[in-house]
């Protein structure tokens, strides 16, 4: 049996991939789940389950009993909430509780999952870990939450906390059960629900490559350093041109201007405040789409030996899983 490792967020997309990667290499994996967390991504796996909440330092200390390493992957990943500050509080205070607990019990090393959301994109240019947002420039509550949580971990690492940071770009692939915002794009396009597109771009990476990058960060990463775990820079038009044929559909050819979409986003958010359901279109999402979210993983490649498979394969795996799971009509 390998090392005892705790993974938070293992019921989610990236966290479950990290937990499986650790288990496959022989580590003894304990996963932290709330009592209400879905179990689909942990069923059938040889994981020890610890019930607790990342916001509760006491339950985190209990979950870390006997643990050598911690992967803090859990996050409140919503691009909209009735109370946006709730997202910020959850991700900042949850991270604080996990890091405080890890320091209290003497965990040997922590891998903290940040996000490229905390990095400042440039129009059409791939940026690296040095392109940093501030609280004044970041767009939306989720990105702000990842920014302030990342800064907290950096300060604690400078004060002796043995934490390495990783920043996934846009993971796609199997077992995206929620699904994520990018997963929703894939499902919508494959189901024939995207007759048009806006001019934007993403850095696409297979979720299992992101998981492998987490393990490399544990083994080879430098304390206090941040590593982008990305793949390929892809325009949305190119992405749709691969997704749609996999579902037997023609990709959209109409490019929409953003300006007419803002009233729709405002109406969608107003309706969401009534229903409580996350809107399909938000003002923050439109503002973010003005940028091509392109990123460089060169530091992770050079320092960790990180690599990523072709983005088209990640799309194929995602579409196949969404179809098998019944998400695609």
Q: How would you describe this structure to a colleague?
A:
- With 329 residues, the chain is of the alpha/beta class.
- It has a domain at 4-171 and 205-231: NAD(P)-binding Rossmann-like Domain (Rossmann fold, 3-Layer(aba) Sandwich), CATH 3.40.50.720.
- Helix content is 42%, strand content 16%.
- The chain has eleven helices and twelve strands.
- The chain has helices at 13-24, 57-63, 84-105, 141-158, 181-190, 207-220, 236-246, 261-275, 283-289, 298-304, 311-324, and strands at 4-8, 28-33, 48-51, 69-72, 109-113, 163-168, 170-172, 196-197, 201-206, 226-229, 232-235, 254-255.
- The protein has a seven-stranded parallel beta sheet, with helices on both faces.
- The radius of gyration is 19 Å and the shape is globular.
- The model has no long low-confidence stretch (mean pLDDT 94).
Keywords:
329 residues, alpha/beta, Rossmann fold, 3-stranded mixed beta sheet, 11 helices
Order of helices and strands: EHEEHEHEHEEHEEHEEHEHHHH
Question: What sort of overall outline do the alpha carbons produce when their principal axes are compared?
Answer: globular
At CATH level 3, the topology of one domain is: Rossmann fold
Name the helicity range. 40-55%
| Count, helices | 11
Query: For the record, what CATH class of one domain applies?
Result: Alpha Beta
Measured by DSSP, the beta-strand proportion falls in 15-25%
Integer average pLDDT: 94
Enumerate the strands of the largest sheet in spatial order, edge to edge or round the barrel.
3-2-1-4-5-6-10
CATH superfamily of one domain: NAD(P)-binding Rossmann-like Domain
CATH architecture of one domain: 3-Layer(aba) Sandwich
Distance between the termini: 43 Å
Largest sheet: 7 strands, parallel
Strand elements, count:
12
């Amino acid at each position: 049996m390998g090392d005892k490792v705790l993974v938070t967020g293992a019921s989610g997309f990236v966290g479950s991939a990290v937990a499986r990667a650790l288990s496959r290499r022989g580590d003894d994996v304990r996963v932290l789940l709330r009592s209400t967390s879905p179990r689909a991504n942990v069923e059938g796996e040889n994981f020890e389950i610890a019930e607790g909440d990342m916001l509760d330092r006491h339950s985190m200390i209990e979950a870390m009993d006997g643990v050598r390493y911690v992967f803090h992957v859990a996050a409140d990943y919503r691009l909209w909430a009735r109370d946006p500050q709730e997202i910020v509080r959850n991700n900042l205070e949850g991270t604080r509780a996990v890091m405080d607990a890890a320091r209290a019990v003497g965990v040997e090393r922590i891998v903290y999952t940040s996000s490229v959301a905390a990095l400042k994109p440039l129009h059409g240019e791939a940026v690296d870990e040095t392109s940093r947002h501030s609280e004044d420039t970041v767009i939306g509550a989720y990105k702000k939450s990842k920014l302030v949580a990342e800064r907290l971990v950096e300060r604690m690492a400078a004060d002796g906390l043995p934490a390495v940071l990783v920043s996934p770009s846009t993971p796609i692939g199997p077992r995206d059960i929620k699904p994520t915002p990018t997963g929703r794009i894939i499902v919508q396009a494959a189901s024939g629900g995207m007759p048009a597109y806006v001019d934007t771009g993403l850095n696409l990476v297979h979720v299992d490559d992101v998981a492998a990058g987490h393990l490399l960060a544990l083994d080879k990463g430098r304390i206090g350093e941040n590593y982008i775990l990305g793949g390929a820079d892809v325009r949305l038009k190119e992405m749709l041109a691969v997704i749609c044929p996999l579902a037997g559909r023609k990709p959209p050819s109409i490019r929409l201007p953003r300006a007419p979409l803002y009233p729709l986003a405002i109406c969608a958010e107003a309706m969401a405040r009534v229903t409580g359901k996350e809107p399909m279109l938000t003002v923050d999402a439109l503002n973010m789409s003005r940028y091509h979210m392109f990123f460089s993983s060169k530091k992770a490649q050079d320092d960790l030996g990180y690599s990523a498979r072709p983005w088209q394969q990640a799309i194929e795996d995602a579409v196949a899983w969404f179809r098998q799971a019944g998400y695609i009509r």
